[in-house]
DNA sequence: AAATTATAGTTACGAATGTAACTATATCAA
DNA sequence: TTGATATAGTTACATTCGTAACTATAATTT
């Protein structure tokens, strides 16, 4: 007898559903606090965590398409949260770096992020939280 | 000492990243085979699995916004994969139902879905696959 | 029963997105 | 060296999306 298909147990669906729920919970925070989009938050976080880097680097680290990175960088630049510096040896490249204000917004959102993470951890329990993280990491490497 | 924030270990990010990866793997299939979008696939799958229902029901089951449902239903209707029937008692309501062709496309994608699920299960191993499904379900109920 | 409120679903419109084309610069090959 | 190819990043354009407004119908209140 042939296995039955169940949309709600189907991993792509289940993952997307969960991801949206969890992502939106945190998106509320950076949207309300700074009117930021998801792309902008990711670019900010990558710059905050890994320091000065090129748009290409940001794209690799965030998984964002280069046009999204370009637009997000431009938008964050408009707030004066980052500055660009052209590489002297390779003038196609711009090193992108947070300003003091950008750094400060990043730190403020980090705190919120850590608190949010903790909320999820409390809900799942430490053991399940770790297990989930590990499993997602494993699946990511497929 | 204050905990350090790590974007790549941050659940909203990790989940989204994994979800995109896994979703896109299956999206390739329905896109290549039928030029369907994700919304259309979800609507089709919900109709296939739960039978005739209203647009509102579909929205609840898929988590899609009603405008997305409306557009997806319209688009699938154009292919003649579903038909609508106005409720006689409440004329705001339309019961939506797959046609024979819609049913057949659904069954074909179910097979592909089951195969895809199996591929992921093979990669993770039965135990981890079950664990992941359970954890996602738990997180979903947060 | 008339006025009000609620629900189902569609549509209009501005914002966000992805693809592809483009500019500028650098590297490689003949 | 110069012609071809590759890379960094931006921009144009068509598509998709979400919000809000809208139409139609039903239910509720007065």
TrEMBL record, chains A, B:
One of its GO terms (molecular function) is DNA-binding transcription factor activity. Residues 8-141 form the HTH marR-type domain. InterPro entries: HTH_MarR-typ (IPR000835), MarR/SlyA-like (IPR039422), WH-like_DNA-bd_sf (IPR036388), WH_DNA-bd_sf (IPR036390). Gene3D superfamilies: Winged helix-like DNA-binding domain superfamily/Winged helix DNA-binding domain (1.10.10.10). One of its GO terms (biological process) is response to stress. Signal peptide: none annotated. PANTHER family: HTH-TYPE TRANSCRIPTIONAL REPRESSOR YETL, TRANSCRIPTIONAL REGULATOR, MARR FAMILY. This is MarR family transcriptional regulator. It comes from Thalassospira mesophila.
């Amino acid at each position: 007898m042939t296995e039955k298909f169940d949309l709600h147990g189907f991993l792509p669906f289940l993952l997307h559903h969960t991801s949206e729920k969890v992502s939106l919970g945190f998106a509320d925070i950076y949207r309300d606090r700074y009117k930021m989009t998801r792309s902008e938050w990711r670019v900010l976080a990558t710059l905050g965590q890994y320091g000065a880097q090129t748009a290409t680097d940001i794209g690799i680290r965030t998984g964002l398409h280069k046009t999204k990175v370009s637009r997000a960088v431009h938008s964050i630049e408009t707030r004066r949260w980052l500055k660009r510096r052209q590489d002297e040896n390779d003038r196609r490249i711009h090193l992108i770096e947070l300003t003091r204000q950008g750094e400060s917004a990043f730190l403020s959102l980090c705190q919120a992020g850590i608190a949010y993470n903790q909320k999820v951890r409390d809900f799942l329990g430490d053991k399940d939280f770790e297990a989930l993280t590990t499993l997602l990491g494993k699946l990511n490497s497929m």
